[in-house]
Amino acid sequence: MVARFVTLACVLFLSACTFSDSLKHDEVWSVRPLPTGTTGMPRDVLFATDRELDPAAEFHVGRHWAAQASCGVASENNWAQVTSSVPLFRACTGAAADAAPMGLFADDVAAEADSRKCHSLLLYVHGYNTMFRTALLHSGQMANDTHWPCAMGFFSWASEGQYDRYVADVERSGYAVPVLINLLRAVADKGVEENILAHSMGTRITLSAIGALESYCVAHKRKIVKELVLLAPDIGVERYNDDALHLLRRAQACVGRTTIYASDNDVVLIVSEGTHGGIPRAGRVPDKDLQYPACEALNADIVDAHLAPGDKMGHGYFINSYEMMDDMTAVLRGVALAARAGGARPTLKDGGTVQVACVDAAGETGARTADRYSLIVAPDRQPSFTSRIMRALVPLLVPLQ
Question: Tell me, which fold does domain 34-397 have in CATH?
Answer without folding.
Answer: Rossmann fold (3.40.50)
